[in-house]
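Sync notes, pocket subgroup
Present: LS, DG
LS reminded everyone that the earlier model was apo-only. Rerun requested with FE2/S2 (inorganic) cluster included. Inputs:
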Amino acid sequence: MLTENEKKELQAALKKYPNRRSAVMDALRIVQNGRGGHIVKEDMLEIASILEMQPAEVNAAATFYTMYNVNKPVGKHHIQVCRNISCSLMGAEHIIKHLERTLDIKTGQTTPDKKFTLSTVECLGSCATAPMMQINDDYYENLTDQKVDEILKNLK
Ligand code: FES
């Protein structure tokens, strides 16, 4: 169930679009941020009702984009490493292995303390600074093992 604040934020977002259905990505972002990083079916049903869409259309948007975590709770810091062509050529697989070893989890898993989730994603549009990863809303680029260690150390 959307909170009053989430409903207000969504109403503000709706003003940006001539067609309320166009606010679906904003709605998903608002709800995901309010749920600690993931979206459940009930949220999508409510979004569909507010935006006057079919639930399947909201589900299609939520499951198409890797930035939405549907029915999949993530840790406090969601690490998404790009493994597309530029990042792969520049060492993404090595960075992924380093993260798996350092966090002692496999890709797709969350640490037992729920602090980190490790995922891989397709191109995040930062190919010139490969290899790169996104942690929550921030990009980290030109990664090396040492840089990854520094980044993880600075996350609370
Ligand atoms: S290939 Fe990694 S950001 Fe584009």
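DG: The CA atoms of residues 79 and 138 lie 10 Å apart.
LS: The helical segments are 4-14, 24-34, 41-51, 55-64, 85-89, 92-103, 145-154.
Action: DG to write up.
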